[in-house]
Specification:
The complex is a heterodimer of chains A (637) and B (72). Chain A contains 20 helices and 22 strands. In chain A, helix 3 runs antiparallel to helix 8. In chain A, the strands form 4 sheets. Chain A has a 7-stranded mixed beta sheet, with helices on both faces. A 6-stranded antiparallel beta sheet of chain A has the order 2-1-3-9-4-7, with no helix packed on it. Chain A has a 6-stranded antiparallel beta sheet with strand order 12-17-16-15-14-13. Among the domains of chain A are: 83 residues, Calcium-transporting ATPase, cytoplasmic transduction domain A; 147 residues, 3-Layer(aba) Sandwich (Rossmann fold), CATH 3.40.50.1000; 112 residues, Calcium-transporting ATPase, cytoplasmic domain N, CATH 3.40.1110.10. With 637 residues, chain A is an alpha+beta fold. In chain A, strand 13 and strand 14 form a beta hairpin. Chain B is α+β, with helices and mostly antiparallel strands and 72 residues long. Chain B has one domain: Alpha-Beta Plaits (2-Layer Sandwich). Chain B contains 2 helices and 4 strands; from the N terminus they run E-H-E-E-H-E. The longest helix of chain B is centred in the last third of the chain and has 15 residues. The two termini of chain B are 16 Å apart. The chains are: A alpha+beta (637), B alpha+beta (72). Chains A and B meet through helix 2, helix 4, helix 7 and helix 9 of A and helix 1 of B.
Chain lengths: 637, 72
């Protein structure tokens, strides 16, 4: 508790100690003889102790022309009640109102701290080694890019960099939500925010502190709360209209019915005198004012979103604003880029078929012929060959664009390429029924077999699709530049509902636009990409999700939601988190509005007194705040 | 130009009031107050002097919510 809160708590306790005996006396439960004016004066002690700041704010509000705030409502209601002789109720309302304020302030402060702790990746210092070998602690802000810093076991890596000395295991859980430690050695990249677990690391920084991953993530999450959702905007607009409305309604309630009754003499039989009539209706109006405080809803909505965003970031899911969390909960179609999201994006030789010569010899020819290319396919051929490649063995190399490569390896003519190349050279070949990229080979003019290269599926791709379906996603569509057959096979294996194959990068935007047209009403489309080359699509979709984006600035910039690791299962998790969060928001709005509406009606009819009103008000607020905090618990969702 | 300021305020509705007050201040193009992070993000009009404008913003915020604070 901070000083202000402690202060308020002490005032509440003092006021309560005074209030209880006074209340018993005023209700004649304990009989003490004292004049009426003495009782009023005594009641003013707890009233002013607990409520003086509210009265002061109300007066300041009137002075500054801002009449309709809660302090004004509370002041009018309680002063009205006391003036009408309901001392007990008047003081109790002020007391309970302050209890509610204290609770709210405490709960919000506590959850703010909890959430910040979840995201506690801000490094406090960096170690720089001075010339005599001693370590000096400096502010990470002062470390220039290219400096050497030392990270000891148990410390946070303060700045992004490359390991120059040492080896260790890093805990990246705070960044990615992945609990398995990452092994690093010399020349490996390390990201700020990860925790060094075992060995001492010397790191050459590659960025300044502000540009480092940890700073960027913190910045992103902290700014997330400033992109407000529709629910939040709705509530703040609602509060703006609601409070003045209730004030005028209260005024009308105090004046219109009694005047009407006095003029028409209808219903006057129930009242002893005109004075009793006025008293009754003014009290009803005061009750009305007590119910009208809008804070319960106003506080619980942003708190829910903030807790949801905090909980998600703890799981390695960065949401850039409450509005995105809201949209994500309405997603019914998810479009995927294939490479890097469903598949790993590293091509590997998976088979060699119909080889007339030894398989390893065939691979050797292929790797040598492709020795000068850096295409992913060539790289995978070289990787499969695995031995040193001497480019001098290759002569007369000719690359035929869109077909393949023709060259002489150790003097033997070798042709490596697709079906078109074989057709062009008039070589009969076997079609392959396997899925993947097929490299046909001809050695010395004879067909020598083909090599199958395929992209591996990610471990969790299948399960991810199943979970998406369970989470209520109706359509999962894969967009890829691959051939029809490859796309169909992947789609079937993973369990996608649809796919679009042979797309050029610009076609993907058109595809997403077409899918967007199919999403009518509240249905929303999410696009998942790896952040490489798909920035336009990411920004075109209702929600752009970039995955495996740790350290990729372009992706973080273009996407609305960033998955820190590249596990597709996190997509379903993100959707579940957003649904839970939005569910809680809706519960709170509905609950608070219904309770308030019921109380307003009961108050107007004279069925609810001030006690009921204030307990309903504070109770709704406490329940709404507690409910909002549930958004934070998303770990096992 | 955008700048972020730390603020202190007690209730969510008061934060909304501060946001409105700041938006109405001359020289402020847009303003977002986040009650959860206790931050105020102000976008200034072209050519406005942030320091002078923020004094105004603070004065206007104090009018609507007397015990709020903006740390300049």
């Amino acid at each position: 508790m901070n000083k202000k809160q402690k202060n308020l708590l002490i005032r509440i306790i003092i006021a309560a100690v005074f209030f209880v005996p006074l209340y018993l006396i005023s209700e004649d439960i304990v009989h003490v003889d004292m004049p009426g004016w003495a009782l009023i004066l005594l009641f003013l002690v707890p009233y002013l102790t607990v409520g003086y700041d509210i009265l002061r704010k109300a007066l300041l509000g009137i002075k500054n022309g801002k009449v309709f705030d809660e302090c004004f409502l509370m002041t009018v209601a309680t002063v009205g009640a006391i003036a009408l002789g309901e001392y007990g109720e008047g003081v109790a309302v002020m007391l309970l109102y302050q209890v509610g304020e204290l609770f709210q302030s405490y709960a919000v402060g506590k959850s703010r701290r909890n959430i910040s702790e979840l995201m506690d990746i801000r490094p406090d210092y960096a170690n720089i080694e001075s010339e005599d070998g001693t370590l000096e602690r400096v502010d990470p802000d002062e470390v220039e890019a290219g400096s050497i810093i030392v990270v000891q076991p148990g410390e946070k890596v303060p700045i992004d960099g490359i390991v120059v000395e040492g080896a260790s295991a890093l805990n990246t859980a705070a960044l990615t939500g992945e609990s398995k430690p990452r092994e690093v050695g010399v020349d490996d990249d390390v990201l700020s925010g990860s925790i060094n677990m075992s060995g001492v690391l010397k790191i050459r920084t590659t960025a300044e502190f502000d540009e480092s991953t940890a700073s960027k993530i913190l910045d992103l999450v902290e700014n997330a709360a400033s992109r407000k959702s529709k629910s939040e905007n709705f509530i703040s607009k609602f509060a703006r209209v609601y409070t003045p409305f209730v004030c005028y309604a209260a005024l009308a309630l105090a004046l219109v019915p009694p005047l009407f009754m006095l003029l028409t003499k209808v219903g006057m039989a129930g009242y002893a005198s005109a004075g009793a009539l006025w008293r009754d209706w003014i009290l009803r109006a005061c009750t009305f004012l007590v119910i009208s405080c809008p804070c319960a809803v106003v506080i619980s909505i942003p708190l829910s979103f903030f807790a949801g965003i905090g909980g998600a970031s703890n799981q390695g899911i960065l949401v850039k604003g409450s509005n995105y969390l809201e949209t994500l909960s309405e997603v019914t179609t998810v479009a995927f880029d294939k490479t890097g999201t469903i598949t790993k994006g590293n091509f590997e030789v998976t088979a060699v078929h119909h080889s007339s010569i030894d398989e390893s010899k065939l691979l050797e020819y292929a790797a040598l012929a492709e020795c000068h290319s850096s295409h992913p396919i060539s790289l995978s051929l070289k990787k499969a060959y695995g031995k040193h490649i001497d480019p001098k063995r290759v002569t007369e190399l000719e690359e035929i664009s869109g077909h393949g490569i023709v060259a002489k390896v150790d003097g033997t003519a070798v042709a490596v390429g697709n079906e078109k190349l074989m057709n062009r050279r008039g070589i009969a070949f076997h079609r392959c029924h396997h899925v993947g990229t097929i490299i046909h080979m001809a050695v010395a003019g004879e067909y020598a077999g083909h090599i199958v290269i395929a992209d591996e599926l990610k471990e969790h791709s299948r399960e991810a699709m199943a979970q998406l379906r369970k989470a209520g996603v109706e359509k999962t569509v894969m967009l890829t530049g691959d051939a029809e057959a490859v796309a169909a096979a992947v789609a079937k294996e993973v369990g996608l509902t649809d796919y679009r194959a042979e797309l050029l990068p610009q076609d993907k935007v058109a595809c997403v636009e077409e899918l967007l047209r199919e999403c009518t009403g509240n249905k929303k489309l999410a696009f998942v990409g790896d952040g490489i080359n798909d920035a336009p699509v990411l920004s075109r979709a209702d929600i752009g999700i970039a995955m495996g984006a740790l350290g990729s600035d372009a992706a973080i910039e273009a996407a609305d939601i960033v998955l820190m690791d590249d596990d597709p299962i996190k997509i379903a998790k993100a959707i579940r988190i957003s649904r839970k969060c939005l569910g809680i928001v809706k519960q709170n709005i509905a609950f608070a509005l219904v309770v308030k509406a019921v109380c307003l009606v009961l108050g107007a009819l004279g069925l609810a007194n001030m006690w009921v009103a204030i307990i309903a008000d504070v109770g709704v607020m406490i329940l709404a705040v507690l409910n909002a905090i549930r958004c934070l618990f998303v770990k096992n969702l | 130009m955008k700048k972020t300021y730390k603020i202190e305020v007690d209730c969510a509705n008061c934060a909304n009031l501060m946001e409105e007050a700041a938006k109405k201040t001359a020289g402020v193009k847009d303003c977002v107050v986040s009650f959860m992070t206790l931050k105020m993000k102000v976008e200034f009009e072209e050519g406005a002097d942030p320091a002078a404008v923020m004094q105004e913003v603070r004065a206007n915020c104090k009018k609507v919510e007397d015990d709020c604070e903006i740390f300049l």
